[in-house]
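Cross-posted from the bioinformatics board.
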Amino acid sequence: MIVVLAFVIGGLYAAGLYMMLRRSITKLIIGLGLLSHAANLLLFTAGGLVRARPPLIPDNSETIQPPFADPVPQALVLTAIVISFGVTAFALALIHRANRVIGTDDMDQMKATDV
Amino acid sequence: MNPFLLNILLALAWEAMNGEFTFENFAVGFALGFVILFFAQRVTGETVYARRVWRVLGLLVFFVKELIIANVRVAYDVLTPGYQMRPGVLAVPLDAETDEEIMLLASLTSLTPGTLNLDVSADRRTLYIHAMYADDPAAVKRSIKEGFERRVLGVLR
Amino acid sequence: MTTGILSIFALAFLAPVICRFARGHTGWLLALLPATLTIYFATRIGLVAHGERITERLAWVPSLGVELTFYLDGLSLLFALLICGIGALVLIYAGAYLKGREQLGRFYLYLLLFMGAMLGLVLAGNLLLLFVFWELTSISSFLLIGFEHKKAEARRAALQALLITGGGGLALLAGLVLLGQISGGYDVPELLAGGDAVRASTLYLPALLLVLAGAFTKSAQFPFHFWLPGAMQAPTPVSAYLHSATMVKAGVYLLARLASVLGGTDEWFYIVTSVGAATMVAGGVLAFFQTDLKLILAYSTVSALGTLVMLEGLSTDHAARAMVVFLFAHALYKGALFMVAGAIDHETGTRDVTRLGGLRRVMPVTAVAAVIAGVSLAGFGPVFSFIGKELLNEAVLLAEGTARGVLVPFTILGSALFVAVACAAALRPFFGELKETPKGAHEAPAAMWLGPVILAALGLVVGLAPALVAGSLVAPAVASVLGRSEPVELALWHGFNAALLMSVIAAVAGALLFRFRERLRGGTAWSRNLFAFPARGYELSLTWLHRAAAMATRVLQSGYLRSYLTIIVLTTVGLVGYTLLTRAYTPLNFAAAREVRFYEVGVAALILLAALVAVRSRTRLGAVASLGVVGYCVALIFILFGAPDLALTQFLIETLTVILLVLVLHRLPPLALIARAPARARDLVVALLFGGTMTALVLVAWGVPFQQQASNFYAERSYTEAHGRNIVNVILVDFRGLDTLGEITVLSVAAIGVYALLKLRPPEAKRGAAVVNDLSARRRESSPDGELAEVVARAPEGEVS
Amino acid sequence: MNLSDGVFDVFVVNFLYLMLMAALLLAFVRLAVGPSMPDRVVALDLIANLVVATTALYAITTNQQVLLDVAIGIALITFLGTVAFAQYIERRARDD
Amino acid sequence: MKLLPVLPVLIPLLTAALALLQWRHRVAQRRLSVAGAIALFVAAVWLFAVVQREGVQVVQSGGWQAPFGISFVADTFSSLMVLFAATTNLCVVIYSLTSIDARREAFGYHLLLHVMLMGVCGAFLTGDIFNLYVWFELMLMASFVLLALGGERRQMEGAIKYVTINLVSSALFLAAVGLLYAATGTLNMADLALKAQHVNPAGMRTVIALLFFVAFGVKAALFPLYFWLPASYHTPPVVISAIFAGLLTKVGVYSLARVFTLIFRNDAGYMQPLLLWVAALTMIAGGLGAIVQRDLRRMLSFLIISHIGVAAMGLGIFTERAFAGMIFYLIEDIVVLTNLFLIAGGVRLLCGTYDLTQTGGIYRRHPSFGFLFLIPALSLSGIPPFSGFFAKLALIQAGLEAGRYAVVGVSLAVSLLTLYAMARVWMLAFWREQPATTPTNLAAPLATLAAPLTTPIPTISPRRARRALIPIAALSALTIALGLGAEFVFRQSLIAAGVLAEPRLYVEAVLGGER
Amino acid sequence: MSIILRTATRYLMPLLLLFSVFLLLRGHNKPGGGFIGGLVAAAAFSLYAVAYSVGEARALVRLRPQTLIGVGLLVALTSGVVPLFAGRSFLTGMWGGARLPVVGEIYLGTPVFFDIGVYLVVIGISLMDVFTLAEETAETADVPEPRAGGETG
Amino acid sequence: MIEVVAHWREWLVLGLLSAGALFLLLAAVGVFRLPDVYTRMQAATKAATLGAGCTLLAVAVYFDDFGVTVRALLVVAFIFLTAPVAAHMIGRAAYIIGVPFWHGTKLDEMAAREGDSRRAASDEGKR
Ligand code: NA
Ligand code: NA
């Protein structure tokens, strides 16, 4: 499955990046979303994949017998997911404000601070 | 619904969620429910009468029957080429008055295949539904009024 | 010694305060300190002449090799005396010259800083300490040259000086560090003792070149000579100081200091001598064509510096002797001449020699000083400078074979130009008929003639009785240069010899040059331009630098986010992909791929499909909904592989995100297909490269053996010690609670950001107006840079060429 | 009870998954094609329901009770999503 | 000590949480902010002193033995960085009291500042690679908000680029962490220092190192990853630019230094040419960018980049003395760049603009302000006796010792560019008279420094005005002190570099210490 | 506004809130925890905001989101600091002997309070995001949304 | 037969699961091929709700845990309560923004109601 997921991850990275390379900030934000899915999945696969053995200690036991899914990447991904929620919300507010202030969603119109 | 009753219901729901019916669990659930209701005070603005259990059961049976019969009809239409349906939007006059009555009626009509509640008029006297088989609008309306509405009012009043 | 140097710095910072109280007497008051120091150093003459070396050490930054070490030997003593002595005179002179000017306090501050830095430089017994003072002289002279800061020319000259000497300084630093590394330390006495090892080192040549770059720029050697005349923008007392005793001689000092370490090799000889000789002639020629008194003196200084450097390059006993005497004499007469020039300017209102004449009648005292100094400049008469000239000629005549053949005519030409210049600058204004000048000329105040008179008199006295300094000052200095002591005897008259013949030829030629100066000035513009090209080069390179920088910056900092992203991603792909292929390639094991369940593949395929649809979607909602599907399917993956917490979180968050997306995107313009096909294809390639790299990474990482040490630990302790059965949650709130603490803070900040962005409104600006302003701002930005235009376009030809 | 015990033949189970996957695909096609916004919302809602069902099925076939809670969570939040979506569509129509 | 190393994280958090509860009380927030900044400073000094006296301090948060909990590690390097971050923060907080406008204060400016510091200190102190990611995100998020706070057009344009590029780098960072975990099964940096050496194939470790290099390189603003910086740093109020300039990129360099010396030290050979090339190009690109800027803050932004290149050179040389030079350089940069931005704010107030074609006249009216500028400007250009010289000297010595002549040459050329840029500022804003066309505040007393940025005509008491000059003067004094006391600083840097060069010390302190 | 939705919401909301507390407290042993619980609670309030209005939802919550966040952070921080007084390391779990008579076998301990802090913060931030964005984007709607007293100022 | 009785719960679970999957597939086919959004909703609301309900009921039956069973039943109730509400919201929205009916739709009694100006036909709205 990891082989399949590897291609999914790559595909998500590619799709996310492609969207971010568009001129519209709307697409930019969608691209960011895809990118964070990719990163989360990648992180998730870091511990290896174990089917249907969540890291939960059974009620009648003090420990859990392997194999079980590695809880560490899960905790990390959970953190990353929640963070990316915060970030996405902020990014949304940002592009909303930007669109209101600048009057366009075209990234090419947003070069005044460089040049 | 009486807030106290609601509170007890919440306490029971709590026990159910935990899957352990004990007194202490009930007490905690009750306390939690109280806190939640305190924060959600506006939710419990009205009072509702107690229900009659057999009417509920009757409604349930009727509902399941309708559900299955009509599902087959839709399934047939969905799975065969071409359509036999004659859809239309119907205005069904309402006898139901309270929020709960209207909601329940609307939900039940929506859940039975063939009819889907679209809206309630601003004066709350008309229910607009989308019916897939509206060859005879009057019949559809009648079936709703005499099938569901009567039973719903019977349960809730 | 240490106290003396530090006290000058202390006085510098007190100067503005003193200036406020002492007013007109500030110059006299401040001169007390350098005068005292002059006396102090004079008392050391005896000791040093007996071959003693005085060293004082204080720790500063020993771990970097920077120590407050001061070292007094013959060479540094001579310089210290000149710096303090002339410094005192210049302070007195400045008090009168600048009377009533604004910012006088700052002027004294800079001047004293400069003096302190210069004194520190010559006394430094640690290479890095020397560099510290070296840079301080650059900075303080920058501040002094730009003293008339409202004048663009002054600023430009200051910048020029700073860049040239600063650049040289950086080279010097590298050179000194290399020297330090060769010799194992930065202590000057130790370095002086280990010259052989240095010259034998493979790093000798780079170190030499770097040190020379520093010295040549500082001492205005060709082709770096052009900044020095520019420094004329400084008030005259500064010019006097700069040119006579100090800053420009810092390079000469450095070469003399290091001559016994770096000198004596072929590289040293060819480079130093030829640069010096070229500078000598170039300076002379340029001086000859000037009519501004200060510029004439400035270029003649360049010429003199060239002479000194040439002598240093020769590395012979004679040359060392000639160098020390010439340097001493030059300090005396050039200081006097600059003060005279200042006095003339001050009294008459002009420095144009063609408009000056007959001043001896109205400024008799000044005239006496000027004539003595002028004679010294010409290298004639019973003055110290004549001895120097003779020694110079001797040294050149004693040079080896071909070198002699080149150097002798060069020296004669240089001397002839000196004569012509002396006539033009020192003698001509005082003789002949009194000419009309902007101000009615009369004698300068005592404070202004005191300096020139003392210096000129000293030149005369020492010239008549050279024994006064031969053993006490010159011999120890020569010993320092040579690295061994060598008896020195000086006499005014050496009898008729080849050296005298050279002087005579030079005198005659010089007189002729002076006679036909007008015609020559008119007819030989080419020779002027011949030596002007370095100045042009400086300006051109500055312009090119700006152009190149502007272009590079415009290309890199294009303003297009996607080009930034493309560059970043291609960097990643290039680095990671290349390394992956070359160093981490492992044949992939696809056998394991067979134990895949079809619904897993189904979910995976749906993710890709949904991503594709999100990319291709023409509607905002379609894209958002597809993104949602990606998220839901990712949640399904989590469910399939034992991560219920993750699945729940992912699903909850995906839904909330979709809601927020819908809320916001609806206010944005509809999606439009703007990019052209080639752009899309290019981006597609970039994106696919990136995706492919990440896929490869995951596949390779998967093959790396893995230990589940941590998860086993958590599995064992989660319930028994942390009282939780959900290991993921226990990790979040206990094992790795700190992550969570940080994370909720991130969330808090993000939410505040959302709130602030949407609720905090900028003061309502009219959008149209803002756009217009912005456009005009952009247009302005594309016009050439302001100050650069000032620097490049308005360079007055006469001044730099 | 276990996955491969008795009636829970792998073939049967896989057939159930197959149906759900097919349903997911069909729903997704509707989501991608639209054409109206409500169409997409309907499709997304259906997909969420399919995820709930898949989760429930997986819970049974792999014997994980805990997945029920996941399914509950999904069911609860889906409602919010759909309602908010619909609300937004309406409000937007009123704005324009 | 179970608390001290986490204090620099807890104090800002406590400050921010309390400020949140005082959301509507601006005055209370200001007081909290100052109190928090002082407390952080005291804690940082205390931490530094304890590390000095007792060596590396380690806290295993949650009481779990390393590598299973998250370790907080204060060695000399991290405690130095925390100390200077806290110092800068204190100055910036004081400056903000008189310079940040009421609108921004009402929307959480103070607490955002403290949260950012929390992230910065956390990043310096953590001994866990994923925890580092969290602190990075925290720091970034706070900086995103600070950058955008106010919602002006330029801010929006800058923020979009800043946010996007940094998020991409965060995604790469996350991927790198994931791959590292996949290859080693641990996240604790000390543990990684041991386990990463056994990764097979070793090339995989190199690849991960490169991912970290890109991720941190973006944060550090290395070539060619720096574009977000000049696009955004000049857009928010100057005091925000100032703290960004001082701290953010330094965290990137710090992290590069940590992971490359600890985890990827065996890839140094492979990475070194890359690092040196990148360092050289960063220096050049930054330096060239700086000299063509008209906007003072943009010029400073490019100088940040250029000087990050110098610090990266220290890392690339990869010797103990080079590390020490890099650390000294980072410290110096924090102080000087913050100060220069604060001074730029003063220029703007006096001349009414950041546009160097429109400025002038300050030297004549406010010479003392001019000298306050000269100190950091000269220090940045590496002119003795200020701290910048010694930092540069240390790097040059290390570079030449290691035979890295070319890159040292580039660094020297770039200091000339810096000197040129600073001299231009001096000439255009200070020496020359202001072009007649621009509206000017020059006639106003220096008190104008205290005015809120958006207010054109300042009306503020001299007492508050002096308060605004305090941080600038303090930072300038610090620059001098760091120069005169360079021995102390460099000794500390050497001690810090010792740990970088010999990771055993770090590893033993973390894994062998408190259980 | 839909009567049907409003009526349904009145009944669903308490259930959702209850479920969120359930998830929170049970999270230490089964899927759930502060994040998930907080998100569900936020979803409940968001539902109310959709059915009624953001203003009414704000009134229902009573506390400002900022306050929720602040309190949450303080709770989390405090639960981490408390062990310090017992000479333990920051964030060390300290478990009271008391067995919470609720969810089977939860012990009261500082990590539980930590999770409660997380719960509060997540509610606070989600509400802040949702409410603010909803208000902002609804701004030009012809039916102005009632604003809650304290928040918009 | 005895087997069936002995394993009645498995068979019940299997039956419920099959019914659930079947209904869901039906809903998906309906959503896929019915001609307008209103009719698609008809399919989605009923069949999907029924399908999800069946699978959750299967869970309730399958697990031998009272808490699980109660929660499963509760969520089935929840779904039955919310699905029509959601459908109502979508349908109303569709009607308001003017999503067109299938050409076979003959009757629209809602068009006559007052305040129908809300039904604005915008192009963007239809997407
Ligand atoms: Na992220
Ligand atoms: Na920065």
